[in-house]
Structure prediction request, 151 residues.
Amino acid sequence: MAKQSFTGISYSYIFDGAGGSRDQLEQTILSELQAKQYPLKATIKEIKAGGMFFGTKEQCVAIEVDKEAQIAISNTTVGSYLYVELYLMVQEKSALFAAFSALTDNVFKQQKRNAVFEAAKEATESAFAKLGLKQSNNGYKSDKRETKSED
Prediction:
């Protein structure tokens, strides 16, 4: 298994009285992505975060962006609440490779990643509305989040 580190941005939401909606939400998100005819490869799969021994796997809606980036839409039930988080996860590179990559990467790659993230966010929020979920907060946007994977 190769170690991978990801960094990126995320949005989170909490819904009151929606604790049993996890599977239904995942299916509705996939339906919304398909209905909007976004050219995205979205599946439900387990994504591992954390170290080799202490990492956890979570079932998520996963969207491949490119070979270095993916979007994960995870949701967890806490009592009667449903907690949903959207992550744009970009694989970190070694310092030497990152310096070379910074010279060769262009703004259009980041623009594509941001566009796919916004499409996923819009489809997810549309799924919230279709399911009639009552949001308990206004959402939270992180500037940077890091996680490690042992894939």
Observations:
- The radius of gyration is 16 Å.
- Helices lie at 22-35, 95-104, 107-131.
- Confidence is low (pLDDT under 50) at residues 145-151.
